[in-house]
Write a structure and sequence with these properties.
heterodimer, A: mainly alpha, MetI-like fold, B: alpha+beta, Rossmann fold, OB fold (Dihydrolipoamide Acetyltransferase, E2P), 2 domains, six-stranded mixed β-sheet, five-stranded antiparallel β-sheet, 8 helices, 20 strands, about 35% strand, globular
Chain lengths: ~210, ~350
């Protein structure tokens, strides 16, 4: 589920970060605010908004259900969507930072050597931003595993389908005698978060070293 | 065959109105103080800046012309660009960097192996840019630009970020390129050494205007240009080595319509060399002195005398049979020799004061 959220969210985050970093257009502040909204909004509100938009009677949810028979609410796919929306700002920020720190001189050099816009994006800009993209992806993946509010509101708490770690911990705490299970799960959560952060740090360092920074 | 450049642009602080024409192929050096508009010419030629008016014509073909709408984006313009910082792609090997433009250009005359050999970068091909020295990096950047098969090579102070040792290391490669590739080059620099070594034509720019333009030997010796006021001012002659005299430890060079004796060179007979004769090393005389150590007594005619207010000295431009010299003397010497424009004069040049440059 987390992999799916990162898998779908990352390319979109790259595009959004690129647009925000490179272009100045009238709706830019609004796009920027929309992207960062889930970071500030209570997750339950985000989940509820998703429910309204992607629910069976929602504008997009009803279309998906009528045309493709796809139902998002209370499914694994729905949990992925909720996670993807929640981690989107994290990824966009990381990628945008690395795009903005890239040397514009290299872009000029590539231009003078005959590389068009898309060519430069694929062969110069994105490889140079790859540390940011990877680090953003890993941190987002780790964040995903801990998503609570948006998932429980939009996709409910169905063990094996939409249950994230904190949901399982919460559920365990509701059952008498579930403390030991909750403690176990919390340790798993802690380990995953640590691994995610350390891994992203290590990969970022390795990639930057390969780029001679 | 010529390269002609016309550029007009209004910046908030300075107005650029530059126009010059130089022969091709060859290296045209744009020389002048910072902010004079040299880099603006490079940016406009590369298409990175769109000036109010710009026209660049090489051998009758308009590469850029704002008036007739020939204004291609940089990526379709085929101008080779070498920056002060090498700007190699850090995520690619040297070989991949070199092939970046080559792969994107239509097949042209510049061959990969030839460029690698000319620039001496064969041993670096598998290395990453961040493991190279500054000089190596710049050589790779030059090779990369050349392999994109450009119509015109633009070099914006390519050696400015290197220390003098690295500069000395890279200079021979540039001289070799100059003779091996028949490609017009626009070269911006602040260094008179680079001018003397590389320039075929020299365009002096100041405050957005061309104040002097012509072949290097002609411009370098002009007494009325600011160039002559510099302490390191000097004439440049294009010479051919015609004789070695090992017994006397001398070599004879001919150029500018005169014969000069220099300390013995190890170049083959017939080789072309440019020599630089600093203005402060040229002594003037009315008649041939007797019993003197100087080997070179060159007859000429005073073409122009200009004051150097700052140095309390006078610059004398001397016309040779087929070239020019410049001499810095005191105002008193002018009076003593009764020199004026058109007067015959002898220039005395110490053999050891002549600097031998590349081809």
């Amino acid at each position: 589920m987390a992999a799916r959220a990162v898998g779908f969210g990352l390319p979109l985050a790259v595009i959004t970060a690129f647009v925000l970093a490179r272009f100045r257009f009238p709706g830019r502040p609004i796009l920027n605010a929309l992207v960062h909204l889930p970071l500030v909004l209570p997750p339950v509100v985000t989940g509820w908004l998703l429910l309204i938009i992607f629910g069976l009677r929602g504008p997009i949810g009803s279309l998906l259900n009528d045309w493709f028979g796809v139902r998002l609410v209370f499914t694994t796919a729905g949990a992925s969507l909720a996670c993807a929306v929640m981690i989107f700002p994290v990824m966009v920020r990381a990628i945008r930072l690395s795009l903005e720190s890239a040397d514009p001189g290299l872009d000029q050099a590539a231009r003078s050597l005959g590389a068009g816009r898309l060519d430069r994006l694929l062969n110069v800009t994105l490889p140079l931003a790859s540390p940011g993209i990877l680090v953003g992806g890993i941190v987002a993946y780790a964040t995903c595993l801990g998503e609570f509010g948006a998932v429980i509101t939009f996709a409910a708490n169905i063990p094996g389908q939409t249950q994230t770690l904190p949901l399982a911990i919460y559920a365990a705490l509701q059952v008498p005698g579930g403390e030991s299970k909750a403690a176990e799960l919390s340790l798993v959560s802690l380990a995953l978060a640590l691994i995610g952060l350390l891994l992203s740090e290590w990969i970022g360092k390795r990639l930057n070293a390969a780029l001679g920074r | 065959m010529s390269l002609s450049v016309l550029l007009r642009h209004q910046f908030p602080s300075v107005q650029i109105a530059i126009e010059f024409e130089v022969p091709t192929p060859g290296v045209t050096v744009l020389f002048g103080p910072s902010g004079a508009g040299k880099s603006t010419i490079i940016s406009a030629a590369a298409g990175l800046l769109r000036p109010d008016k710009c026209r660049i014509v090489i051998d009758g073909q308009a590469l850029a012309d704002t008036a007739s709408g020939v204004w291609l984006p940089p990526e379709r313009r085929r101008m080779g660009l070498v920056f002060q910082d090498a700007r190699l792609f850090p995520h690619m090997s040297v070989a991949t960097n070199l092939r970046f433009g080559l792969r994107r250009a239509a097949p042209g005359p510049v061959q990969f192996d030839e460029v690698v050999e000319l620039l001496g970068i064969g041993a670096l091909l598998s290395r990453r840019p961040h493991t190279l020295s500054g000089g190596e990096r710049q050589r790779v950047a030059i090779g990369r630009a050349l392999l994109a098969q450009p119509h015109l090579l633009l070099m914006d102070e390519p050696l400015a970020s290197l220390d003098s040792a690295r500069k000395a290391e890279i200079m021979p490669y540039l001289t070799r390129l100059k003779t091996a590739l028949r490609l017009p080059v626009l070269y911006v620099t602040h260094s008179l050494d680079e001018v003397a070594e590389l320039a075929d034509s020299l365009v002096l720019i100041d405050a957005g205007r061309v104040i002097g333009c012509g072949p290097l030997p002609e411009i370098a010796a002009r007494a009325d240009l600011p160039l002559a006021q510099r302490d390191d001012a000097g004439a440049v002659l294009l010479c051919r080595v015609t004789e070695h005299d090992p017994a006397r430890q001398l070599s004879r060079l001919e150029g500018g319509g005169v014969t000069l004796w220099l300390p013995l060179l190890d170049t083959p007979i017939g080789a072309e060399r440019r020599i630089r004769i600093p203005a402060r090393e040229v002594i003037l005389a009315g008649k041939v002195p007797e019993s003197i150590s100087v080997h070179n007594v060159v007859p000429g005619e005073v073409r122009r005398i200009a004051d150097d207010a700052r140095g309390h000295s006078v610059l004398v431009e001397i016309a040779l049979a087929d070239g020019s010299l410049i001499s810095r003397v005191t105002p008193d010497a002018i009076v003593k020799l009764a020199l004026s424009a058109g007067a015959p004069v002898l220039a005395l040049i110490k053999s050891t004061s002549i600097e031998v440059l590349g081809a």
